[in-house]
Amino acid sequence: MDKVGEVVQELLNSDKTAIAIDPGFGPAGFFDISKSVVVSWGVMIFLMILTLIMTAEMRVTNISKRQLIIETAVVKLRSLVGGGLGEEAKEYTGWLMTLLIFLGFSNLVGILGFTPATMDLNVTAALAITSIVLVQIASIRKKGGKGYFKSFAKPIAVILPMNILELGIKPLSLCMRLFGNILAATVIMEMLKTLVPIFVPAVFCLYFDLFDGLLQAYVFVFLTSLYIKEAVE
Q1: What is the pLDDT of residues 144-160, one digit of tens each?
Q2: Rg of the chain over CA atoms, in angstroms?
Q3: Taking the alpha carbons of 14, 17, 23, 29 in that order, is the dihedral positive or negative?
Q4: For the purposes of burial, counting CB atoms within 10 Å of the CB of 62, is it exposed (0-12), middle (13-18) or buried (19 or more)?
Q5: What percent of the chain has pLDDT over 70?
Q6: CB 113: neighbour CB atoms within 10 A?
Q7: How do residues 26-54 score in pLDDT, each as one tens digit?
Q8: What pTM, to 2 d.p., does this model score?
Q9: Which residues contact 224 (CB under 8 A, 6 or more apart)?
């Protein structure tokens, strides 16, 4: 247990600054760019370039095998993500697909030796807050301003405080679940590298960095889709 605690402390207390910027004013370190920001931007730039390459020369007729594979993958992904939204919330499928792809690749960078951006609590908190804000927007668009505020007193007025409290609980739950699972996977991998430095970590990497990373991305998106569906009902 002491060894696990040491690894956790080392990961949490490690220098997270990628680019130090000293403009000569403001608090020290305030303008520094963290490693998680660099990794996040790296993932986004990679995905944008990949998208441009994969969607180049697309046609309506006589499509290529590459286009067929891409279209099939998009349809499958749309079905996977949008299946739980229902007809009333299907317009949010695009956002959820984008979020799933970004989270999936962000979690997978651990295979390449980078620290996943989702191991930074600031990143997971920002993603969780963004998702919950979208949920509230979806609810307002569906119910209108008056209906939105009335929904906090449903099914009975006595649970109004609980419904208001949920506004903070849901993003906290999303944030801590993603952060905690990615941190736990990283800790386990670091322990394995210390105890069994040859072969075994590579095998477990397939689970913790590949399967578990994709699973956590899906869980985050799945819960967000449930919140959206609940908000528009």
Answers
A1: 888 888 887 777 777 78
A2: 21
A3: negative
A4: exposed
A5: 79
A6: 6
A7: 566 666 778 888 888 999 999 999 888 88
A8: 0.81
A9: 96, 99, 131, 134, 135, 174
- Three state DSSP letters for 171-194: HHHHHHHHHHHHHHHHHHHHHHHH
With H, G, I as helix, E, B as strand and everything else as coil, classify residue 33.
strand
**DSSP secondary structure code for residue 26 in this structure:** S
Look at strands 33-34 and 17-19 and give their pairing: antiparallel
Look up residue 232 and give its DSSP letter: H
Q: Which helix (H) or strand (E) holds 142?
A: helix 121-150
Strands (E), 58-108: none
Residue 19: its H or E element: strand 17-19
The three-class DSSP label of residue 34 is strand
Q: Which residues lie below 8 Å from residue 92, measured CB to CB, with a gap of 6+?
A: 85, 134, 138, 225, 228
pLDDT tens digits for 126-136?
A: 888 888 888 88
CB atoms within 10 A of CB 105: 20
